[in-house]
Amino acid sequence: MAGALEGIRVLDLSRILAGPWSTQNLADLGADVIKIEKPHSGDDTRSWGPPFVDKGDGSGHDAAYFFCANRNKRSLTLDFTQEAGLAILLKIVEQADVLVENYKVGGLKKYGLDYATLAKINPQLIYCSITGFGQDGPYAERPGYDALIQAMGGLMSITGEPDGSDGGGPQKVGVAVVDILTGLYATNAILAALYHRHQSQQGQYIDIALLDVQVAALVNQAGNFLLGGKVPERMGSAHPSIVPYQPFACKDGYVMLAIGNDVQFANFCTAAGVPELVADSRFTTNAARVQNRVDCIAQIAPLLLQQTIDAWCALAEKNNFPCGPINTIDRVFDDPQVQSRGMQVAMQSSVYGELDLVANPMRLSATPVSYRYAPPELGQDTDAILAEYGVNQLDREVLKKAGII
Question: Is residue 179 annotated as part of the catalytic site, yes or no?
Fold first, then answer.
């Protein structure tokens, strides 16, 4: 079946993660994504290793990092800082539907690749800029990286163990979550702009900032401050508004107990053999349990230590309360639910052979995502793409000798 975005051509001038994450989503949905890369070096993440992906002969080549965000794309090496390279890029722009870039503010203007200039060439172009701090404001010129934005945007102030406790202090999240969320917001904005263009025949400019995304992603923590007036603090893995909702030690490891309502708490207490806790006025409602958090956890923690991880998970399923193991990454991909949902996908690469990648989680019944191309080797599609735009073989050889492609 054809993808939802079949026929949409995306020009990907982004590197690292936020931009490539967005364009990979578009590619998985069927768009033709042309990834523009520097000759000889390419996307920065190609060198962000180890680990490097083995070509089968024991030699490392591209870093595993690159493979997480560049599936279903075609790689075109092109030096658009040179006149001949810029001319080719402008020719592609004329037929592009979407352009995604994450250069510094104003960085592409000197080449005539800013939105105002390109909109004159292609009025229907949707142009998405991704930066650390946005196109205006006092920080606009600053470079922005995920961990920096996690710090400045408040996430690290609420992540980690409380000050004064073992291991206390601010921590970043274990993946580049701001980059990922920024890529998803960019994808949403691009899809909205495509729908608007379908109605109006007009393109538009999209300004996405990592800091904006991080502030928006504070969700309930921001709401608690704005509406309640109290600055949230680090609580480890506990929840500021729900109790019990945190990891607990068991006989053989840890489980995450995620009690979301009073019925689930009663079910847990029954399974744990302490139904009397439900009648205790300190614990009857979630609001009461939050107010008496320390006492509640003190009652529950010793109970969890009496059983194994598997025993608690079985009790949770039988008694209808949320509880699960805290899995390492290898256990995640061994999990029967993850396997049943097909979250690991094998793709065939002409360079690397079979590659195991993480699947796209979107499930569309009529226009499912597809896995057409493995992440490309640097410049592997250059000749084919240039031929599509009328650059003959002789001219391509000249461009190669000049280092433009």
Answer: yes
